[in-house]
Amino acid sequence: MSVSDDFLGADDLLWGVSTSAFQIEGSFTAAGRRPSTWDGFPAFEGDDASVACDHYRRYREDVGLMRSLGVGAYRFSVSWPRVLAGDLAFYDRLVDELLAAGIAPVATLYHWDTPLAVEQAGGWLDRDTAHRFAEYAERVAARLADRVAMWIPINEPAMVTLLGYATGQHAPGKALLFDALPTAHHLNLAHGLAVQALRSAGARAVGTANNHTPTWPASPADAPAAEAYADLHNWLYADAQLAGRYPDSLADRLPIVDGDLAITSAPLDFYGVNYYNPTRLRLPSEGNPLPFELVDVDEYPKTGFGWPVVPSGLSEMVSLLRDRFADLPPVYVTESGCSYPHSLQDTERIAYLDAHIAEALKAGVRGYFVWSLMDNFEWDSGYSQRFGLVHVDYATQERTPRASYEWYRDRIRR
């Protein structure tokens, strides 16, 4: 196991919850955190994350909720802009509070909040950003490596490339399509350099957290479209990190320097899968510059976000990974969750978690982290989507556990 058996729950599984810094911390003052690419980026109805869930000031209350929930681990992220402002003390306090509550700290170094100055200097399009990230990783690890149980350098690099640089849906809002591909290599390089920095600082267990989606062709003739999307979404990152290679369809588009792939594929102690839904593809219509088009998966129920609920896609994805990588490290589901309206009697979320946990156990994973502990700022969707086991009243910051919180607590105990 990557963590002590003291943190394991029923089924010898590491049960956890996940959040990210930008989405919950708040307290974004000039002195406390430098600007990120998300500051000022358009969100639903003009929402912003300046307060979010006020976790920066209320973290003890939130750790108390986790203690009552009975989770063995908490996956949080460290804010790169906050660390650049000199505030690592907050994460010292958070980690100590977690350990005092008997909860394993699982730290993600980057969950999409690129410092604005780094983006203005070229962002992930610039190779030098990978080295700036490694310096940041070294700084955080020097402070926390003695107490953090598991480390994840970068969360979902696919989403940074696809949504942040290819389509512009996320910050920094660039719509470069295939010209965004250099960011994928620089993110993988940053991952590998951070793995080196973490190991040098004595980190106990280092892994990753990649977003994965089974790709389904709309018809047998559409198989090339599904394969092209799988290369972009799944294998562009997993291949580099686990096998030191890139898909043949994309390798010529990437700015690879000799020795890079030995860095990107530094050995890992665990592999994190973030799973939400499968994706259906067809061949593109005339005039589409991409080799695929997305097709609605309409035969399944949908979450409040409009995502199809397909629990079997989780075990399908883990099987695909095991088939592709003979030496796949132990797998953890590092994110799995759903957005539904804010009702406290959230029976749909309970059904979602019950089915997905069953598939996770069927797939033989080592841990399951629910996204998310609490409602939060959902990027370009602002506060319109609610993923939390705990309801947050954003006007008062009152936390109210939902029925799904009670269900998950009982499931952990069972």
From TrEMBL:
UniProt cross-references to Pfam families, sorted A to Z: Glyco_hydro_1
GO MF annotations, alphabetized: beta-glucosidase activity
Keywords: Glycosidase, Hydrolase
Species the sequence originates in: Saccharothrix texasensis
Keyword Manganese: no
InterPro entries hit by this protein: GH (IPR017853), Glyco_hydro_1 (IPR001360)
Name recorded for this polypeptide: Beta-glucosidase
GO BP terms in the entry: carbohydrate catabolic process
Entries under Gene3D superfamilies matching the protein: Glycosidases (3.20.20.80)
Annotated family: Belongs to the glycosyl hydrolase 1 family.
GO cellular component: cytosol
